[in-house]
Amino acid sequence: MKNEVKDSNVKDIMSEEDEKETTRESNVYHNNTRNRNLNVMIAVILFFIFLFGGLFYLFEESSIFGNKYTYTNKETGSKYSFVREKINNDLTMNILTTYSIYKGAGHKYDIPFRNSPKDLENIPVDADIKKKIIAKQRLYITLDPELEGKATIASVEIGRILGTAEWGVFQIPTGVGTTRKTNTTYPVITCMNSSPRTGVLWLRLGNTTHVISDKDCIIIEGKNYNDLIKAADKLAYNLLGVLP
Questions:
Q1: Burial of 44 per CB tally in 10 Å (0-12, 13-18, 19+)
Q2: Rounded CA gap, 113 and 204, in Å?
Q3: Whole-structure pTM value
């Protein structure tokens, strides 16, 4: 009888150890999967920040533009030329034509946006946002690594006009980070890393759709992923002078 009890206890212990090992293996698998997804997500952000110019030029060379319209900034009276381009049944781009100086020469940019400026007029942006951003010597775009891949679209909307690629309008060195430590090489960047020389643009989900600043940290917040993209577009339009 005692031997039977011992055998039963041993089996129970072995069963518990098997369950623990299975749980450890499952956690390792999910962590590895999460890190791979994070690497892919950030790689996509960097790809579009630094290589999005190809799409600019594609739009510039397109001969099928037909839906032209002009948007007028209600505060300054400045007018901006757009073309509405249908990509598919679910996506229509609003392509802004603007000009900037790069390496002493004037450059034309055709920049696609998912949202028209008129649709974003009611999203509030702090008045000093543009001044804070363009004064920085370096910028970081950061986000929670647990956010879905759709958040990368919001990152791209901002990063492509800020970075140092030839088609970047503002030519500010721009990197990508995460708000929490991960098993990747990407740095942990939070508002604590912002300074008068270094700006942090934090993309997050929250209770409000707006763009606000906390000292040298810019917070781009949306109630959901679509609103987060809208807030990012609003900030980009603000930086370009299209919207106040």
A1: middle
A2: 20
A3: 0.75
Range of the domain at 200: 41-51+121-240
CATH number at residue 191: 3.30.379
Task: Note whether residue 2 is domain-resident.
Answer: no
Starting at the edge strand found earlier in the chain, the sheet holding 174-178 runs 174-178, 138-143, 198-205, 217-222, 210-214
d(CA 96, CA 162): 16
Residue pLDDT, tens place only, 96-132: 988 765 555 567 788 899 999 999 999 999 999 999 9
Q: For tokens 């999967």, name the residue.
A: 33
What is the full DSSP assignment across the chain?
A: -HHHHHHHHHHHHHHHHHHHHHHHHHHHHHHHHHHHHHHHHHHHHHHHHHHTHHHHHHHHH-S---EEEEEE-TTT--EEEEEEEEEETTEEEEEEEEEEEETTEEEEEEEEESS-GGGGTTS-B-TTHHHHHHT-SEEEEEE-TTS-TTHHHHHHHHHHHHSSSTT-SS---EEEEESS--SSSSPB--GGG--SSEEEEEEEE-SS-EEEEETTEEEEEESSHHHHHHHHHHHHHHHHTS--
Does residue 71 sit within a domain?
no
Domain assignment present for 14: no
**Interatomic CA distance for residues 102 and 168, integer angstroms:** 9
